[in-house]
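During the no-cost extension, the postdoctoral fellow (Dr. R.K.) reprocessed legacy sequence entries with the updated structure-token encoder. One reprocessed record is reproduced below for audit purposes.
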Amino acid sequence: MPRTERLKRRAASRASAEEAAAAQAERKKSKSWNESRFTLGQQMDQDRMARVEIERAKAAEKEAEAAKLRDWQNSVGTSPTSVTAQPHSEIAETDEPPALVNGGIAPSSAHPGQAQPSLASAETSPPRPSRPPRQPPLQPRSIPRLSPPPPPRRTGTVSIKFTPKLLPAPARTKGAAADRELPPDPLAAPQLAGTVAPDAADISQRDPAWLKARGDRHYTLRDWASAESAYSHVLSQFGKSIMGQAIDCVVACYSNRSVCRIRRGEMLAAAADASEALNIVCKARCVTEFPKPEEALQRARMRLYARRATAYAAAGVLHRATADLHSALALVGATEGMTADPGAVSDRSVLTMDLHAAQEREEAAAKLRQEAAALVAHCANSGEERTAEGQLELTRARELLNECLGLQPLDAATLAQRATCLVLLYEPSAAAADATAGLAELDAEAARDGVERSMMSGLFPPSPLPDEVRAALVCRSDQAERVRFALLESRGAARAALSQLQEAASDLRAALKLRPAHPSVLASLDEIARRAVAEGVDLQHLPLAPPASPEPAIAPAAQPQGKEAAVVEARAEATESGSTGEPAASSSAKEPKVVSAGVPPPVGTRSAALLKGDADGAVRNGKLEQALQLYGAALQADAAAEWLQGTATGGLLFRCQCLANRAACHLRLSDYNACVDDATAALTALDAIADSMAAAAPLRLKLLARRGMALSRLTRHMEARDDYRRAVALAPDDAQLRHDLSAIEKACETA
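Re-encoded structure tokens follow.
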């Protein structure tokens, strides 16, 4: 299908998907509005019913109080109507005016039935002195008889105890002054984990639900930085553990934050977020009353795979992007079978086109890498006899590798090839940078493999990848050790060219652990050691003793610290115990002396030899831990100067002796893995020594026997049998070796 047609189909599918998404959003908005309106109506009805109930309760309470008042009035025998209507019913009242007597007012009779004097009698009677009229006596009112008051109560003391509060009460129940009061109990109130911001005083500003809603708003507005910050605050609340009810929230935050980081160009961080979300989804499900259906869970997982694939593809990790796109397509097919969703069809078409694009990029990068590898290998095999044509080939190879890294910026194999090419082009700084980037990518790839293994071990593991994709991932994982060796070798060569001898030696030693007895690495180490001696560089940063002093003298102002101080202390203890630097019983007496008596040793040789002698004395005294430290210090000392004494293999033999003695200490301390490592390193180094050297044979016999014993204790009987067979071949008359070999062969047969 031509590219224009594919672009048209992609645009059409994208437009249809956007229309469907807009329609779905409109439906959701209408549904939300209707639900909120219905909820508001229901709430108003409930409020109205509550007010009616309150009024009814008030009326009933008033009626009950009125009834109580009437009952009380009846009990005391007083009618409120008679008292208020006739307050002075006992006093007679009249509306007629009083009679005139001699121009005054005649006094009213005291009693209604009393006879009044007539006018005639008044005229004939003698006059009396004037005095105030006599008022009739008032009749007392009828006051109800009240019961006597009760006697006073007796006094007493009542003790009241309150239950102590474990948590402080809210401010609204205690007043504003309570905000400044410390709680009486030291138990603090429960709070959310961590503080989002210094000014986040309100608990709502630390609520994960509120923060996620805030992040969703910024996400909708395409404010990626603010959305990422909000999602990060949510995830900080679940740094140690995730509660079952919050699993969906955490997964959504990781997923949305990965999109924010993709938009901001942080591809590897976005892929890490998607990996975290997938790891959670594969291990647990959200514990809620209304769990998500399986279709929604599959679609969420599909989105995570698609987003991680986008991040990997943009970062240049194409093999991971291809695997994730295959997983996403498998999930789209599963959801498409559940429901006839047009969005699933659109997703499938988009994912398919992205997968084809990633595969095309990967194939183009592989072709460029193969062509460049052929050019680099041709120039590397030519050695130092490089012509102008070879220089042009290297330049062409670098251009091809640059183009390949434009398609796959983080491919470790391509970085290793370009580092080798740059070393051949005498550009050590760029070569060291490429090698460092490649080693970092190998470490990141190992971490990604760990995440995938963790996902597969969960309760809900992902579906397996297609066979060809899984085979490609396994092949790349198997080649990781070879690529790491090439990167370490290239960086060691580049650092040696930059005169960084210590760092170069460290890289080459790490490469030698991956491929023991590699001739080019051994030759490079030997060359670096010679240069270090010539330039006076200490490869291991050890405190060296002055050549004229038989014992190392350390000034008070330059006292060693840490591990070096422990080594000096161990040497002092060994000296006090009477060690004279003689070889231990485990080492052969026929082994040649490393330091010649006639020629003064170079700087650093005396320190290494004395350390080994002190270690041998510690072994004789039974101080195995101290001997381990001293043998390690002797190995770390600058023994490169000894390599120039007599033969080129004298210093190497010295190191093998130290390794053999340290392996014996590990074996006696039951540290069998360390014993195997030391013996293997020594045997690998001895393989580089010529067979004509008589001192190497007895040392090899000891190393084979010690490694075989350690392997048998580790139940690695097949490897132990091989070592004992080689040892018996070197010493056929040794009865103990033959006895051990027969026992190990029986163990192999039973296993």
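The CA atoms of residues 302 and 331 lie 6 Å apart. The chain has 26 helices and two strands. The remaining legacy entries will be reprocessed before the final report is submitted.
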